[in-house]
Amino acid sequence: MSTRRLLALALSAGVGLAHAGSDAGNPAADPAAMNQLVEAVSLDVVSEAALGACDDLGVSSAARLREAWVAWRTRHQIAPMRVVLTRAMQRRSGDPPWDRIATPTRQKLLDAPDPERACAALPQELQGPGMDIGARFPRAPGVARALVQAKLVMPPTPLPVATEPARGQVLLPTQVIALTERHGNWLVISEEAARRRLGPVYVKGLVARDLSRPENFHLVLAQGDRRSPQRIDLKFNAEPWVGREIVLRGVVTSLNRLSMDLADAALVSDPSGLSLSPLPQTPLARQAVPIQRVTTAPGQGLGDRDLAAVVVHGEANSVQGTRWDEDVRFLLRDGSVYRRTEMPPDQLDVAASRRLEPQRWGRWRAAGKGYEMQAQDDDGHPAGDWKPERHEAVRPWPADARLAGSFTRSAFTGSMVTGGTSSTRGIRFTQDGRFERSFTALSSTGSLQAITGTVVAGSSQGDGTGSSRTGTATVGTGTGTVGVSSGTRARDDGASRRGRYRLGAYAITLEYDDGHKERLLSFPVDDARQSVYIGTGSYDREK
User: Fold this and answer.
1) For residue 463, which of 425, 517, 407 has the smallest C-alpha distance?
2) Which residue among 3, 94, 171, 478 is the one 20 to 30 A from 230 at the CA level?
3) pLDDT in tens for each of the 543 residues of the chain?
4) Are residues 310 and 357 in contact, defined by beta-carbon separation less than 8 angstroms?
């Protein structure tokens, strides 16, 4: 059964239990009707993922696709349905799994042999019958209204509109640093205090979504392949304006060099009387391009005659958790160094990379037994002085090398106070050329929530035999605690985590039993092979 169908059944079951016998005609209690709402919103999620992929790929039709997508979701009134469904799912089981719905579409476009053609066809598809929400899912709006009427979710709150002509200066996200330097920075303050400190301000930018938090939105400034490093966080649900450039009036309730919070906002309908603030602007930063844009076929990239060394340095990172971070770089014989190494060197399209991501390149030189390196900026110019680096050269895999044993990599994200996730990823190799990946993850609220008697935890695990997920919660109330458990759900047969492997040079090829294939950067970190690098990090041999 599909993820979308399972979500629909779970939501309708919850509504039905809440209103059994009290509202038999409630469309939200009908699984078929609820499925229409889920499918309608899922189309929005999928099409937004396609837009993001085309935008990241830098295709010429990206701007036209954005306009078509905004027009499509406005025509079918998608925004209020998405708000209601997101809130209903958050109430039932936490944030909705939009990423599991969006990722396949995004990956398909990123891997398309002709992405320019695939993206160019999407605006027309948005006009076709397959994207006609009213015809395909006529009951979806009624289900959303029923969820609100039953008080199962809060309704979307309309954003006030400032109808009077605006007068004054408008701020851009690129002026956040200058604003901070002029007025100082402050943590969250009340709207009244914000009015006294800075008064009402006007801001302008493109509305973007915070993918990790579905009801968080912000303004950015975007031009081509560059975006503002700073942003303006919106303290309201901006779902109807995603993908649009808007002007807002509001008050600044938080300000620092990375972002500012805008609260008590109103949409400015007539910004013609506004002029741009004279505050200095931070230059736009070049965005990282998808790996597909700088990858070529195996053996067609950086050749052995051009590669001087592959070097690595690792160290512990205790920012927002605990993990081991590694930085791998390719040193070329012409004195240049490449600092994004997610693919084997023989798949790096050097010409494309130098053109699309010059900030990933720099210069290197030998310094005693080590190296010194100089970075480049977004335009390919030298950035800063030469700096000594602690990287060390590694050896490639011998042809037809084999491994035996289990290797793991662990991390903790979050804090003991607010909660976090502890995870371990593993991979087991056998001498006959087989491998099996595994993972375990445990998430839990922290000591701050435990003070009130509330503990929410979830765990997931998987290996070559399958995977499962469990959730539990204990919620403190005025009369005691209430415990809830979601049970354990099997999700697959494990074929996507087992298969055959091949090692050679600086690559590992993984051919999975479900048919998909990966070719990743890999090398032994040490001569004894107690640690091996695979993909984006090293795995240590289990003792």
Assistant:
1) 425
2) 94
3) 455 554 554 455 444 434 433 454 667 678 899 999 999 999 999 999 999 999 999 899 999 999 999 999 999 999 999 999 999 888 876 677 788 889 999 999 999 989 999 999 999 999 999 999 999 999 999 999 999 998 889 988 899 999 888 999 999 999 999 999 999 999 999 999 999 999 999 999 999 998 778 789 999 999 988 999 999 999 999 999 999 999 999 999 999 999 999 999 999 999 999 999 999 999 999 999 999 999 999 999 999 999 999 999 999 888 778 888 999 999 999 999 999 888 999 999 999 999 999 999 999 999 999 999 999 999 999 999 999 999 999 999 998 899 999 999 998 887 665 677 888 999 999 999 999 999 998 877 655 455 555 556 677 888 899 888 776 555 554 445 444 445 555 568 899 999 999 999 999 999 999 999 999 999 999 999 999 999 999 999 998
4) no
What tokens appear for 81 in the block? 């349905």
In the chain, what's the furthest Cα-to-Cα distance? 81
Q: Could you count the other beta carbons within 10 Å of the beta carbon of residue 351?
A: 10
The one-letter amino acid code at 24 reads: A
Per the listing, tokens 């975006």 go with 227
- Tell me how far apart the terminal alpha carbons of the chain are, to the nearest angstrom: 40
* Tokens read off for 133: 């929400």
**Closest Cα partner for 389 from 345, 327, 334?**
327
- Find out whether 38 and 4 touch, Cβ atoms under 8 Å: yes
**Matching residue, tokens 């939105």:** 217
Amino acid at the residue 213: R
Residue 220 host element (H or E): strand 217-220
Structure tokens at 68: 């078509």
Cα-based distances in Å from 54 to 193, 207, 226, 418:
42, 18, 15, 36
Tally of CA atoms within 13 A in the half-sphere of 296 that contains its CB = 14
Which of 215, 66, 44, 24 is CA-nearest to residue 140? 44
CB hemisphere CA count around 168 (13 angstroms): 15
Query: At 124, which helix (H) or strand (E)?
Result: helix 122-125
For residues 413 and 411, give the distance between their C-alpha atoms in angstroms, rounded to a whole number: 7
Is 357 in contact with 289 (CB distance < 8 Å)?
yes
Alpha carbon dihedral 203, 204, 205, 209, in 10-degree steps, equals 50
Tokens read off for 14: 């919850």
Query: CB neighbours (10 Å) of residue 362?
Result: 23
Q: Which residue type sits at 538? A: S
Pairing state of beta strands 168-171 and 161-162? unpaired
329-342: b (≥16 Cβ within 10 Å) or e: bbbbeeebbbbbbe
Distances (CA, A) of 206 to 54, 75, 203, 399: 17, 20, 10, 51
**144-166: b or e for each residue (b if 16 or more CB lie within 10 Å)?**
bbbbbebebbeebeebeebeeeb
Tokens 């998808």 belong to 290
